[in-house]
Amino acid sequence: MHNDITHDPGEGLSPTLERNIQALVERRLRERRAARGQEKLADAITAFTGSMIFVYLHLAVFGFWIIANLHWLPGIPAWDESFVMLAMIASVEAIFLSTFVLISQNRMSAVADKRADLDLQISLLAEHELTKVARLLTQIAERLDVQPDSKRDLEEASRDIAPERVLDRIEETRS
């Protein structure tokens, strides 16, 4: 039975798409394994500090600190009535956490740049191949004496695009 939630395992993904997905998964695994220990540590710390467990832990520790130092817990003497130590600990923690986050963001940015370069290369290759196909279709249409609905559009599609010029034009419009 086939519905919107389930599907026949034989349907859907082409062998080429399956191969591409597998290649991307393997690439990500290789990149993770190639990461230095320091980078892995920074990523692990960033992942933990971005979790709700981290928030709950801080609520418990800081909450206890504040309640105890306000003398709200009988039998527990205050050790930081002015909360100077708490502020210092929180400030030092914030410095280190922001550094770990920046390290992880730098790595993620480098990975995003690689993916953007790959996307650009694939787009340029597709543009080049489509230009060739448009030229071939034009030649076939001429040989069969078929007049296209919009000859101007077909001529435009069969012209090569200079990627450097496109990038230059984009930069010109940003200024």
What is the compact description of this entry?
The protein is built from six helices and no strands.
List the helices and strands and how they pair.
Blueprint: H1 15-34, H2 37-49, H3 52-69, H4 84-143, H5 151-157, H6 163-174
Helix pairs in contact: 2-4
Structure description:
The protein has 6 helices and no strands. It is mainly alpha-helical and 175 residues long. Helix 2 packs across helix 4. The protein is elongated and about 100 Å long. The model has no long low-confidence stretch (mean pLDDT 87).
Mean pLDDT figure:
87
Low-confidence stretches: none
- Number of helix segments? 6
Number of strands: 0
How large is the share of residues in beta strands? Answer: under 5%
Summary tags:
single chain; mainly alpha
